[in-house]
Write a structure and sequence with these properties.
It is globular, with a radius of gyration of 30 Å. The protein has 22 helices and 29 strands. It binds a DNA duplex (15 and 18 nucleotides) through helix 11, helix 14, helix 15 and helix 19.
Length: about 775
DNA sequence: GCCTTATGTATACCA
DNA sequence: ACTGGTATACATAAGGCG
């Protein structure tokens, strides 16, 4: 019997006392299915020393069995650092003892090394049969005698062979659920040791937001009621915002305390902590959108609502602060809080719905299941992708090992030409590092000791790389670049606004993310294919490329105003720019594209900080305080206004008077408290800091008052009139009243520096902004 | 002991 | 736990002065 299914999640579990892979999926007729593949035996490789007789080794392994779980050994051809090598694939009965088994074999046989013995059973399965989640498969087998209701599926299937992929087709209709919990405490933030969950809000695809509320001191009933509702809806994807750090651990601890059964997985189990610190629900995808928001660098303060606004999906802004939850819950304002929680569930749902295509595409490309892929750091996404590709290419997969890092020289940033410029074009190399790695075959397996006709010597750093055959990085990067081009091309042919278009864009974005991270991966100490020479050479070739481009531009008479890593900002002359693009292609064999066009642009004296006026009249601000998350909104919006006056109106004098008027009597403007809050990330525990800093001091104060802040959280503070150092003047934002605000600080250390950063360019200094009498006459 | 300057720590940004 | 390059603020140590 044959079965077609779309793979949502997979895990390793026993089946009839044997190790098996459990594949959770959805069929074409929209049924949920559990596919059990108990026919996989894991294995590792042994690389003999040169001169060792491989047939003899094979015979010895099978006869001596260095470890009881050795099943048999087979001879295979593999590649190791560009060399063809014969290896032994040792099959192993017991996946839990793979590493030990490999160690014993290496010791007893005196071979060079073992490979792939540290890879988990399910990963081995994935690379062996090219199993990527979020894709269609067909498989042979029979209907199982297991009751499907036991696993919240419609069918349980036992395979006779292994799944084979079906060429690209879209995902089935998945059941989506979002949820968020609420707990309150009179003394600060709630603690699962003390405070029960008092509300769960959720939203499913079609329908309104729902809640379960509880008055009781025990949330036993609430947890079980939620479990029932959850299982009844039987979601495929569960969205949360902060679920991995708050909702799930809280629910688990509460369930443990009150002896409630938290049943949310398809196995009726709870959420379980997994590989990347995230939580997994068996047979479902638990997607924490806070992880997704981590990739959105433009969203400075990561709330669901900010993420929703950024994505352009619907979300209502909450009005009740976390510190007011308790009073609302026990008081007459509870309905407002309940509404806010419902709105939160809706916002989470909308963000999740929007982020789903990207999540599934990134999961499919990287081969990390959808519940892991967002939780995994970029390096591990690349790692997982490379594992799959390495196996396809017959490369032995090295183990990850943390080496001591030797830093190397990176990119070039040009000195900006300070001031205002009209009609400026940005020329960007497309995927510069990947393109260079492909063009010059930069890879650990093409690195050679000696130069020669068949090798390239990298300028500046002097490493040599063979031109042929193509190395590992060249092959994978070429594939990625080609697949991104294909997605791009197809997207261009597909009508905008259609689901297909969105999927193709998501595919393109996922491919881009993996492509662009590969250079960094090569230079990451934790990488399997770490090579400082590779990373260093890519960087050196990048510098060489940008330097040559500057010369080409100059020879054409193009005026270069600025540049950073892979871009050049030039005075825009259409004919010259087109010529330049052709020259780069001809002389360097690389693609450079016309990027942003600025009607007018302002460069400050600092690198990496500029602001430009776009064709449509919008400002594009880069690196400046106006877009930094660690400046008050007050300073940010004033700098933004100053930039507008300068770039749109061309009027620094007006900008100057604007700032002066604010500075003169800031207090009288009655700016809202929220615009005075300065947010900074706590990057370690408060006691680990070497020097006193305002946000650390505030974090300590908050912890003392029952609002502990954990690593990675943003701490919001306002500077008060209290005497002393800044860190003594800073107070938690929610505790400060407008009367306590040190407006002098905001004038001297926020508004004036932010405004002067722009106005310095026109000879307007900080003093001029502070002392109007010495400046020009105001209008 | 007080003031100025140099250095170190911390954060967020650009590509 | 992808890389290096850069700006900036504030705390603190070091240096200079009387």
């Amino acid at each position: 019997m044959k079965l077609d299914f779309w793979l949502l999640d997979l895990n390793h579990d026993a089946h009839e006392g044997k190790s098996a892979i459990w594949l959770w999926g959805v069929t074409r007729d929209n049924k949920r299915v559990l596919v059990i593949d108990a026919n996989f035996q894991t294995s590792f490789y042994l690389l003999p020393k040169k001169g060792q007789d491989i047939d003899q080794l094979k015979e010895r392994i099978e006869r001596e069995k260095p470890h009881p779980s050795v099943e048999r050994a087979d001879i295979e051809q593999k590649k190791r650092l560009g060399e063809d090598r014969q290896v032994l694939k040792v099959s192993c009965k017991d996946p839990d003892n793979l590493e030990k088994c490999a160690r014993d074999c290496v010791k007893q046989l005196g071979v060079e090394a073992s490979f792939e013995d540290k890879l988990r059973y399910s990963i081995k399965y994935q690379i062996e049969f090219e199993i990527r989640p979020c894709q269609w498969y067909k498989v042979e087998g029979t209907e199982s005698s297991i009751d499907p209701r036991k696993y919240h599926v419609d069918r349980v299937f036992e395979t006779s062979g292994h799944p084979t992929s079906i060429p690209r087709e879209n995902a089935p209709k998945l059941r989506l659920l979002s949820f968020s919990i609420l707990s309150v405490s009179p003394t600060g933030s709630p603690s699962p040791i003390r405070d029960p969950v008092c509300l769960v809000a959720w939203k499913k695809k079609d329908g309104q937001a729902n809640t379960i509320q509880s008055e009781k001191t025990s949330d036993n009933e609430l947890i079980e009621e939620f479990s029932q509702a959850h299982q009844k809806f039987d979601p495929d994807v569960v969205f949360s915002f902060g679920g991995n750090t708050f909702d799930w651990p809280y629910l688990i601890k509460r369930a443990d305390r009150t002896k409630a059964k938290l049943s949310v997985g398809r196995d009726d189990g709870p959420a379980r902590q997994s590989l990347y610190g995230h939580f997994s629900l068996t047979g479902r995808a638990n997607v924490d959108l806070q992880d997704f928001s981590g990739d959105l660098y433009d969203v400075k303060i990561k709330t669901v609502e900010n993420v929703a606004r950024f994505l352009g999906v619907e979300a209502s802004t909450p009005t009740i602060d976390e510190t007011e939850y308790y009073d609302h819950w026990i008081g007459k304002d509870r309905p407002a809080l309940v509404e806010q929680m419902k709105a939160r569930a809706i916002s989470i749902f909308n963000v999740g719905d929007d982020a789903l295509d990207y999540t599934l595409q990134l999961s499919n490309l990287s081969a990390l299941p959808p519940d892991q892929v967002l939780a995994a750091a970029v390096g591990f996404r690349v790692d997982s992708y490379l594992l799959m590709e390495a196996r396809k290419l017959g490369e032995l997969i090295p183990a990850r090992s943390e080496l001591n890092i030797i830093p190397y020289k990176g990119a070039i940033v040009l000195e900006p030409s300070v001031g205002l410029h009209d009609n400026v074009a940005v020329l960007d190399f497309s995927a510069m590092y990947p393109s260079l790695m492909v063009k010059y075959n930069i890879s650990p397996d093409t690195l050679v000791d000696e130069g020669g006709d068949d090798a390239l010597e990298v300028p500046e750093v002097g490493h040599h790389f063979r031109k042929n055959p193509p190395g590992f990085y060249k092959i994978v990067l070429s594939q990625l670049i080609a697949s991104r081009q294909a997605a791009k091309k197809e997207a261009a042919k597909t009508p905008r606004g259609t689901p297909e278009h969105k999927i193709l864009k998501a595919r393109e974005k996922a491919t881009k993310v993996i492509t662009n991270a590969t250079y960094g991966y090569a230079g990451w100490a934790g990488s399997r294919w770490y090579s400082r020479e590779v990373a260093e050479s890519a960087a050196a070739l990048g510098r060489d490329t940008i330097n040559k481009s500057i010369d080409i531009a100059k020879n054409l008479g193009l005026h270069v105003l600025y540049g950073d890593t892979d871009s050049l900002f030039v005075e825009y002359e259409e004919k010259l720019v087109n010529q330049f693009i052709k020259e780069i292609d001809k002389n360097l064999g690389l693609e450079i594209n016309l990027g942003q066009l600025y009607k007018r642009i302002l460069f400050t004296e600092a690198k990496k900080k500029y602001a430009g006026l776009l064709e449509d009249g919008e400002l594009d601000i880069v690196g400046m305080e106006a877009i930094r998350g660690d400046w008050s909104n007050l300073a940010r919006s004033i700098q933004n206004e100053v930039l507008k006056l300068v770039l749109q109106g061309g009027n620094p004098t007006e900008a100057k008077s604007y700032v002066q008027s604010l500075v003169k009597d800031l207090e009288s403007f009655k700016v809202p408290k929220s615009s005075l809050v300065i947010w900074k990330t706590l990057t370690k525990r408060p006691d680990e800091y070497e020097v006193n800093a305002p946000h650390v001091e505030v974090a300590r104060k908050m912890a003392k008052e029952g609002w502990p802040v954990t690593v990675g959280d943003k701490v919001g503070f306002i500077v008060t009139k209290k005497p002393g150092k800044l860190y003594q003047k800073a107070e938690p934002h929610f505790k400060v009243s407008l009367g306590q605000v040190d407006y002098d600080y905001y004038v001297h250390n926020q508004i004036v520096p932010a405004a002067a950063r722009v106005l310095e360019v026109f000879g307007i200094h900080e003093e001029d902004l502070l002392e109007p009498s010495r400046g020009q006459v105001n209008l």
